[in-house]
Amino acid sequence: MATATVTDFITKTVNATAATSTSSSRATPQGGVFEGLNPTHYDPKNPITLFIIQAAIVIILTRIIHVPLAYLRQPRVIAEVITGIILGPSVMGRIPGFTNAIFPTSSMPAFTLAANLGLVLFLFLVGLEVDLRFLASNWRIALSVGALGMAIPFGLGCGIAWGLYRDFRNDSGLAPISFGVYMLFIGVAMAITAFPVLCRILTTLKLLSTPVGVIVLSAGVGNDVVGWILLALCVALVNSGAGLTALWILLVAIGYALFLVFAVRPVVMWFLRRTGSLANGPTQTVVALTILLVLASAFFTGIIGIHPIFGAFMIGLMLPHEGGFAIKLTEKIEDLVGVLFLPLYFALSGLGTNLGLLNNGLTWGYVVGVCAVAFVGKIAGGTLAARLNGLVWRESFTIGVLMSCKGLVELIVLNIGLQAKILSTRTFTIFVVMALITTFATTPLTVWLYPAWYQRKLELWKQGKIDWDGNQLHPDTDDTDSTSEADILRKTNVAKKVLVYLRLDGLPGLFTMVSLLAHKPEEEPVEPQEQTKNSEPLMLNAQALSSVVRLRRPLQVHGLRLMELTERESSVMRVSEIEEFAGRDPVIKAFGTFGQSCDMAVGGQIAVVPDHSFSGTLLSRARDLKSDLVLVPWSETGTLSEYPSLFDAKPGDPLANKQFATLAQEIFEKGRVTSHIGVVLDKTVLCTPSGASKIDSPVLDRPTRQLNRTTTGVSIVDQMNSTVHFKLADSGRSRLFALYQGNSEDDLFAVRLGLQLAKNKKVDLKILNARISHEFDDANHQPEDTDHDNKMSVLSKVHTLRTPTDFEFDALRSSIADCGFDGRVTVVDVQLSGLDAIVTAISEPSSAETLVIIGRGTSHSQTANTVSGESSMSSSMVISGGAGQSSAREDNLALGPLATQLVNVVRERQLQTGLLVVQARKENASESPDAFGGFGAPPNPTDTRGLKGLALAKKMSALSDDD
After folding, report:
1. Is 44 exposed, middle or buried (0-12, 13-18, 19+ CB in 10 A)?
2. Are residues 145 and 100 in the same domain?
3. Cys bridge to 428: 423, 684, 705, 763, which one at CB 3.0-4.6 A?
4. Which residues pair with 499 in a beta bridge?
5. Count of structural domains, the chain
6. Is there a single domain that holds both residue 402 and residue 297?
């Protein structure tokens, strides 16, 4: 009995003690939501749950808002600020319970910590993006534009600061500061320019290589550095209790900057060279050391009374740009900062923005006034400085508009002012609205003031080629426009200036084409005895001298490497340092070495543009260089990416992807009046993906990696079996096939290009004339009761209705014997369809490399027949411009109908050949593909091509009459 009483007493005591302990400090339920846990309830011991909810809402909403703004070419910072405003008291904060549930006051310290950590890293990236070499190389104009671009808005900002200080000084939450400090801050907020956003806008609008872009970028560097220095001064004055303290803060800050430049930077440079980071990119150790330097510098500037972001900014300025180190380091850090941390900071900024405080006429008057001062001050300062440096008014206004861009740097400045209690929530909101308006207006105003057509006109005017009204001052006397019959008959050098689209996966096909073009030009032998006997010097014989120069003029090949401009800041930095980056690019270096080995003039260039601007950039460069031919290699992946995945179990079909087909179609369609276009499909592209082992490609098939059992009992991979072997060419010769079907400038250009390639002594060319088959088809389509004389009459009529291109082809054919091809060029008349003729020709066994040249613009009726009556339209429908059954009606949208069918047949029969699809340049933009409106239509009197053809037609007719 006594024992039971003691046991009950002990049990009750233990239970009571446990209940008291649990009620006072109960642990987080480990069962989570299954034990009734509320995820939105903030727990100081486990803040990550609510932080994930907050971050997810901010990131998702930012991405959604940026989608429509991206079509307007607006920077992402606008979407980030709008996200913060929506989540703040202006919109979502008006919903009862939203702020307390998602952004409770107790959770803001952790949220603010993550946002400020992102801000510190972002200011480090801003400093890393600033290249002081721009300021040094253009210091004169950068100093003038930067100085006036800051002085005028600073002065106007000081003027409007007096009204703001007088009318809003009594707002709650402000520090007791003097008007001088307040005026300094407002002046800095008006004068500063957002350098990162400015770089993005210049890159997107392709202005970095223009005089406007160079001036704005150089002035923006100086503006950015001076603006941060003035802001540091302002913060020091606010944080100091006395003037002597502010002086000590500034002196320590200056000493620390000198210490970084003369003590820390040499040690860092030595370590980077020692680890090879300058040449090969930063190692993980270097990245860790850099982040430690950033945090330590931010800590130091924070404890001396200046904001921590200044320390991070100085570390970014200190690090080198040599060898692309800054770009490679940015690539390691930028994604985490830009995707996660930075949106949190601007969301935090938006939470402090309350549009509801703009509730009276006085406040809105200041909104208009602040926006006007920001626009007028910046535009006036930049415009006057640019005009004083000799730029025209329109260029000067463009520079002023670009310098007025505020962006995220302005918002950072405003947040510092809000945290330092210089600005109230009302004035902070006024300046946020100003920053949004100025940033949003920069791009459309720049496009309106400085369009692409005006840039071209201004460039030609400065070069002295046109007057201000656009009239040509020096008429083009290029010999390619000659209308003499002798030039037409001997005109086979159709590609003297070639622009090549450089791609890593397209180098084999491009090297093959360029090597065929890079033959030594034929020179007419000149007897030295005749020169000495002639009393008239050669210089007096202008026509002979012109002929000699024309024959000896080398082939000029220019390579253009197109790289995609992404959302990353490293992509923008790559554009701003494009000259140094181009010299290190392996593709351009390989292309240059190949050109030197072929003894031809080559050049290389990199353009970093959005993917939708690839075709326009390529054709714009061709127009600037006056290129005769643009060569585009087909992607081996079918996409715009040059780097196929090394881990794909099965390679994709390069012709079944619509992405590159769309690019090829845009180049064909937009380039009709710019230059001749050629798309190269290497034989590796024409291999059947599903049966790659059956294709005799230059690279032998790699056997399946097998695990082999050894005497040690361990299964290993035989490394020798994983080696890729390359075949040696069985023959040093190449055989070319050019098809002519009549009534097509593209077919005629294919023949001419083939004749130019045949000047290479290692090339054998066979021209397949399939025009005769169509003529006999027209005669055979007459009724069966038609007698023989009527049929002959029809044939005679068909011959009479030949187009000028047919007569030019006949003239070229008759001149082949006099061009010194030594029997390597033959013309074969075939009574087959064009597709049958080509397939029959390339099916003949040969050890030589094979290339087929066909025109793109062949009419569908000329290729309606398929080989042996078999249809091959089931695969590779993307290259024909569509998919499924409907693509058969649109097979001339990408490569053209003949190329589409030929690709399918080559794949089905596993034929070994390359393919070059060409499109001739149209001399009139409004000219239709059928320039003469059909057989027998008279040529346009203003069409020089038609007049040349008409002259040849008259000559051939006269010869026929003589016979």
Report:
1. exposed
2. yes
3. 423
4. 558, 630
5. 2
6. yes
H or E element at residue 298: helix 284-303
Q: Are 451 and 515 in a shared domain?
A: no
* Predicted local confidence at residue 877, as pLDDT: 39
Residue with tokens 């649990």: 22
According to DSSP, the residues that pair with 608 across neighbouring strands are 563
**Whether residues 364 and 481 fall in one domain:** no
β-pair partners for 852: 737, 915
Q: What would the DSSP string read from start to end of 700-764? A: PPPPPP-EEE-TTS-EEE-GGGG---BPPPS-S-EEEEEEE-SS-HHHHHHHHHHHHHTTSTTEE
Model confidence over 717-761: pLDDT tens digits?
455 555 655 555 555 788 889 888 877 888 889 889 988 888 888
> Which domain range does residue 498 map to?
476-520+553-643+652-689+731-963
- Same domain, yes or no: 663 and 583: yes
Q: What amino acid is encoded at 749 in this protein?
A: F
Count of residues for the chain? 963
Give the per-residue pLDDT at 68. 92
* Residue linked to tokens 């996200």: 83
Do 449 and 495 reside in the same domain of the chain?
no
Interatomic CA distance for residues 895 and 878, integer angstroms: 10
**Residue 605's Cα: distance from chain center in Å?**
13
**DSSP element (H, E) containing 601:** strand 601-609
Judged on CB neighbours under 10 Å (0-12, 13-18, 19+), 64 is exposed
**CB distance 129 to 195 below 8 Å:** yes
pTM for the whole thing?
A: 0.72
Rounded distance between C-alpha atoms, residue 42 and residue 27, angstroms? 14
Instruction: Report residues of the chain scoring pLDDT below 50.
Output: 21-25, 477-486, 488-490, 521-552, 649, 690-703, 711, 717, 775-786, 791-800, 859-892, 925-963
Residues 421 and 482 in one domain: no
CA-closest candidate to residue 954, choices 938, 931, 935: 938
pLDDT at residue 728, as a whole number: 55
- pLDDT at position 52, please? 93
SS3 372: helix
- Name the 3-class secondary structure at 608: strand
Domain membership of residue 705 (yes or no) is no
38: in domain: no
Cα-based angle 135, 197, 121 (whole degrees, multiple of 5): 85
Residue 834 lies in a domain: yes
Judge if 447 and 480 occupy the same domain: no
Amino acid (one-letter) located at 357: L
Q: Pick from 121, 132, 114: which is nearest to 54 by CA?
A: 114
What pLDDT, on the 0 to 100 scale, is given for residue 887? 39
Express each pLDDT in 770-810 by its tens digit: 875 554 444 444 444 445 555 444 444 444 456 777 788 88
Closest by CA position to 807, among listed 745, 750, 759, 736: 745
